[in-house]
Design goal:
Helix content: 25-40%
Radius of gyration: 23 Å
Number of helices: 11
CATH superfamily of the largest domain: PPM-type phosphatase domain
Low-confidence stretches: 356-360
Number of domains: 2
CATH class of the largest domain: Alpha Beta
Number of strands: 18
Strand content: 25-35%
Largest sheet: 6 strands, antiparallel
Shape: elongated
């Protein structure tokens, strides 16, 4: 398994009153060690801007991923975009981050705020050169990334943040870079970094953005494997085999469910001890087993995790809730959404005699819940493997 991973994520808020975002982000992964992310900002807002940015992001990401020259990419976009009837121009800005072999970075930027690099907690602009293509100035930078490097791309809605109701007190690119320096932590994911910046801009807009505002972050990180065991196997004679395979996986281990915890504890010849958290009255508290990183209740907790996952894939409004709480669902979200790149899910197929299908907690619903969660994790760009017993 390749030990490095290029992690790409983004966050955006729409212009107030608009159903569609005029910014669009496309991510293409032609192979395991190559990622291309494009952030495009269509002129204006609403439907027209969305069409322009969607076409630009899709065309640029596909062509760059297929090693086509940037001049061909730009000319193709120009010839493809529809001309606005009101302004008689086809205009869409873009930023491109291409990472090959999880190391070699190339940036292309046209009329967006210049993408910046954060390395070892310090932000700076890479060395850019300029190329004129069809009367358009394209800024280009190439460099070899280091572990934990983060590349930020933004639409100009970030720079406009605060203009209007709360005023814009010199919120320019240097201030944005300084803001991220002050909040940066090494273990923050690309999604967390993008969410933090966009949330700050939204606050400055007084939650009524005067422009579509988006941030896309690329982070070079080490792969991190986490394994989850949910439910006992269909046959009791498989208990030890399931636990042995579960514990053989490197990385952290999460056990979900009271019966599951007893099986794991028996295999380890240890006890299930009461946890110390009682922070969320809606969810059962966690437990402890020596040698296991996290032990939680089963389906009620996992349902909450799935709710957080659905939000994470969209507005990510719950991020600042689960990121700082210590109930079981929040801890699972922190580990799976933020820390893990590779996830093994061990699902036991036994019927739990304590639950009935009418309560919505039966084995079929458990299977559907876990399959749904696995798919949500894949949409987060996690490498997910599901093993049934």
């Amino acid at each position: 398994m390749i030990r490095l991973k290029t992690e790409c994520a983004y966050q955006a808020v729409n212009h107030v009153g608009e159903m569609l975002c005029g910014d669009n982000i496309a991510i293409v992964e032609p192979d395991e060690s190559t990622k291309v992310m494009v952030l495009a900002d269509g002129m204006g807002s609403g439907v027209k801007a969305n069409i322009l940015s969607t076409l630009t992001a899709r065309i640029m990401s596909t062509m760059i991923a297929n090693n086509l020259d940037i001049e061909d990419c730009v000319r193709t976009v120009i010839s493809t975009l529809p001309v606005c009837q009101d302004r008689q121009v086809a205009y869409c800005t873009f930023s491109v981050c291409c990472v090959r072999e999880n190391r070699h970075v190339t940036l292309y930027n046209y009329d967006n705020p210049l993408p910046f690099l954060m390395r070892a907690g310090k932000s700076f602009l890479p060395d850019y050169t300029s190329l004129i293509i069809a009367d358009k100035k394209i800024d280009i930078a190439s460099f070899d990334a280091k572990l934990d490097d983060c590349i930020f791309m933004m639409s100009d809605g970030t720079l406009h943040a605060g203009t209007g109701p709360t005023l814009n007190y010199n919120w320019e690119l240097p201030q944005i870079m300084s803001f991220m320096e002050n909040l940066y932590q090494k273990d923050m994911s690309a999604k967390a970094l993008a969410t933090t910046l966009v949330d700050r801009c939204n606050v400055m807009y007084n939650y009524e953005p005067g422009d579509d505002t988006s941030c896309a972050v690329t982070k070079i990180r080490l792969r991190s494997q986490i394994s989850v065991m949910v439910g006992p196997p269909a046959h009791e004679y498989d208990d030890d085999r399931m636990v042995s395979l579960f514990l053989s996986k490197e990385g952290k281990h999460i056990v979900c469910g009271g019966t599951t915890a007893k099986i794991v504890a028996r295999h380890l010849k240890r006890e299930v001890l009461a946890g110390e958290d009682d922070v969320n009255k809606e969810l059962p508290p966690t437990s402890r087993i020596e040698g296991i990183d996290l032990v939680t209740e089963g389906q009620l907790t996992l349902r909450k995790v799935s709710e957080y996952a659905n939000d994470y894939l969209h507005a990510n409004q719950e991020y600042f809730r689960w990121c700082y709480q210590w109930d079981g669902a929040s801890q699972i979200a922190q580990l799976l959404f933020e820390e893990a790149t590779d996830i093994n899910i061990f699902i036991g197929s036994a019927m739990n005699a304590g639950y009935s299908e009418n309560e919505g907690l039966g084995v079929e619903r458990k299977m559907k819940l876990m399959e749904s969660l696995a798919e949500q994790l894949r949409k987060m760009d996690k490498n997910v493997k599901v093993i049934y017993f």
